[in-house]
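Allow me, if you will, to draw on your knowledge of protein folds for a short while. I have a record of one protein: its chain in single-letter code and its fold written as discrete structure tokens. Kindly check, if you would, that the fold set down in the tokens agrees with what the sequence suggests. Thank you for your consideration; the sequence and its tokens are set out here:
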Amino acid sequence: MESFLQYAKKQFNVDKRLLIIYCSVYLIWGLGMNWFGTVMEIARFTYWWQVITCYILFMVPISLLLRDRPFHEQYAYGLVAMGFLEFGGYALQTSYAYPNNLLDQFFGGRTFALAMALFFALYFPAGNWLVGKIYDRIFPKAFENR
């Protein structure tokens, strides 16, 4: 446990500007996905502010923990994290899946939460890649301090 805490402390010790980029990217991404899910009648959060709790307070710390890891590790750990998040969201009814939505029609109703977890697990490697590119583009000399 102590080695994990040391690892986490190292991963969370980042430039504040990097953290701002993470929060900004994930907030915009979350608002966009919630809007898309609502418009396409796939799924949505019950309350708009859940974008902040899920994308910033849950996904940003996990992304920080997983950054600099290989793609397959980020995806695998992200899948576990998103599995718990999706399960909890639908079990507690803080997320709403539209009846007979596109994913239900394509994969079947019993696979909806799994399909969502499999998709959203890609956010961790994709988000880390995107945030890294933005950060390096805006602050090219700060790369060593990342």
Observations:
- The chain has a mean pLDDT of 92.
- The beta strands are 43-45, 95-97.
- The helical segments are 2-12, 16-39, 50-66, 71-91, 102-107, 112-120, 123-138.
